[in-house]
Write a structure and sequence with these properties.
The complex is a heterodimer of chains A (663) and B (59). Chain A is α/β, with parallel strands linked by helices. Chain A is built from 18 helices and 14 strands. Chain A has helices at residues 41-53, 66-71, 136-143, 146-152, 159-167, 172-195, 202-209, 216-262, 264-321, 333-342, 356-364, 373-391, 394-426, 432-478, 482-527, 560-583, 607-620, 630-640, and strands at residues 2-11, 14-21, 30-34, 77-88, 91-102, 116-122, 128-130, 153-155, 532-536, 542-546, 595-599, 623-628, 644-654, 657-662. Chain A has a 6-stranded antiparallel beta sheet with strand order 2-1-4-5-6-7. A 6-stranded mixed beta sheet of chain A has the order 8-11-12-3-13-14, with helices on both faces. In chain A, strand 11 (595-599), helix 17 and strand 12 (623-628) form a beta-alpha-beta unit. Chain A is elongated. Chain B is α+β, with helices and mostly antiparallel strands. The longest helix of chain B has 21 residues, at 16-36. Chain B has a two-stranded antiparallel ribbon with strand order 1-2. Chain B has helices at residues 16-36, 41-57; strands at 6-9, 12-15. The chains are: A alpha/beta (663), B alpha+beta (59). Chain A binds chain B through residues 89-91, 124, 131, 139, 142, 185-187, 189-190, 192-194, 198, 200-202, 205-206, 471-472, 475-476, 479, 488-497, 500-501, 588, 590, and chain B through 7, 9-14, 16, 18-20, 22-23, 26-27, 30-31, 33-38, 41-42, 44-45, 48-49, 52-53, 55-56.
Chain lengths: 663, 59
Amino acid sequence: MLLKSMSLTNFRQFNGTQSVNFSVDPEKNVTVIMGENGSGKTTLAQAFTWCLYGDTDFDDQVVLNKVVAQNIGPNGEASVQVKIAMVHLGVDYIMTREQKYTTDSTGNLKRPNNTVFKIQYKNKDGQQDFVKESEVDLRMKEILPKELAKYFFFDGERIGNMSKEIRKGKSKEFADAVKSLLGLSAFTEALDHLGGKSSNTVIKSYEKDYSSKSDSKIAQLRDEIARYDSRLDQIEKRFAEIDNEEDIANEKAKEYEIKIAENRDSEKYAQERAKLKNKITSLEQSKVSSTAGVIDTFNRKGASWMATKMIHDALKELADADKIDTGIPDIHARTIQFLINRKKCLCGAPIEFGGPAYTELNKVLDYIPPKSIGTLIGQFVRECELKSKGAADAFDDISNKFSVVSEFDADYAELSNQIETIDKKLEGMLNVGELQKKYTFYNGEVKKLRLERNRLSEEKGAIETKRERCETSINELVLQDENNKRIARFKAYATYMYKYLFSVYKEKESEVREQLEKTVNSIFKEIYNGGFSLKLDEKYNVQIQVDDFDGYVGDVETSTAQSISVIFAFIAGVIKMARENNSDENSMLMTEAYPLVMDAPLSAFDKTRIKTVCEALPKVAEQVIIFIKDTDGEIAEENMGSKVGMRYLFDKKNEFETELIGR
Amino acid sequence: MATNEKEIVNGIEVDVDKAQRLIKKVIVKEKRNLSTKEFGSAEMVKKIKKMIEEEVECY
């Protein structure tokens, strides 16, 4: 594929129709388009993807020039068109995409309909013809698949995503697209036509050609085979899904494994924080119980303790007062009252009311219990002694408990500080327990998927055996009929061809991949002079490996300059191989050279690398088109001046208008 | 150079030289069709069948 020219009509900054011709001279295969920031370099680069695939990366999806949009007026219309002329596999093509915009009665743009994409080509009679509308997308996919287009229409400023993409997680479509660019498409087409998955292949068509008139068993066996094929198809589809799901689950598990390792300390901190929180809780409980203890002791013993001195003084005074009890020991008032009521003394003498014995006995009542003062004093003394004894440890008790309460504040503040420090450390860290749950979940998913794959593999094996038996039976039966025998011979050749081509294809594919790895590495070493080399896996994922560390396996994090070099090397490698395969007419491989269209490709490089990139690219690519800012452009021209065939300059008139001027 | 090598496929003898010639022809046809896009899949299947039948029946 060689780009001949592009013309833009009202596409964003490009008011009216403006054209640019690209250099197709093999000796001077570079076209440099230079301009200051904001002049339209990216717009022009995006015009390629808009024209070929209808996509742009712009936030503003309206591609109509703003000046034109403003001048349409009410109920008017204007069109945006991008036309690209190219040669692909010797055929001249013109790709055109057009978008019509209309305005409402107030002059505002209405939501536009879908774009119209047309592919015009010169047919074998040299006449201009159009690819059918229903086939334009398919034809575009054959010329340059969208999966790969972004690598050929290369945007240096969006390098981060591309670098990640090129290194992992590429789809089967990407691998297929690379294989096709590397020239394996004639093989894949032949394989598809001979015995692919479609219902119309040479082999399946011969099976349908068998006449079942001679034997109804053939039809029955064919039905059985069709059923097996349908199940095998389902299994194959599920295999692809399982691969995809397993990749995702593995990636997730890995992601959580890394997060767990990163957050491992959070577990330790969380445990420490829990311990401290427990301490705070017991401290708080101890404060509450000590405060309650102080109050309780005070309530119970406070009065006694405060009265200790008075009790002491009172007891001393009582002891000194010598208050002799005048009562009769062990005689109670009830005893005297009994004697008075009996009217007879203990000695037998009568006690007469108002008599001297009666009067004497009534006097005694004042000195014996319950009225006896001595007894009261005795009781008072006993109580005083009890109270003094009880209050003896009240001071120590209250002091101890109060010291716990007063220490609480200091301890509490210390523990709170420690918790705060841990909280700060834990900020931004993730909960390892949660991460572990997710890690276990995704690992479980991987195991489930593996089990499912094993089960399906067994089922597939069993079905294939049954299918083979049916085939053998058919093969035996058809030989009994002359016409079927003839068809069976053709089918046997087709089967042989399919199997042979398949094994050759596998061999070639792996050879081509190895060759691509070598080519990519040689270009990478030329561009990026570091101790790294690149490895390609079966899906064409690129891994960067450190050369100087034997035994180190795994990918390496790279800088922007390294990443951009990897992408350059990969694309340039594919382009170089495509070009080399193309020059060999007898090769079974069939490829086409592709151009490199690059927007701001050098901004991530230093001067030395710009020089090496500028020298390497025109050598490996059939055609190079660079959109570049003025300062980088001067260095680029200095380094590949002899290779530059066409030069353009963006002349920025204002924010909405830029003109392209040849230099 | 002909080798007269034979291979049995589904109980039927296949002349390896003929089959190899056919493979080359099919690849050339596919390569050409990739550039010209002259034929669709169904037509290519018919063409390959015709090529096989002509080659196999030619003694």
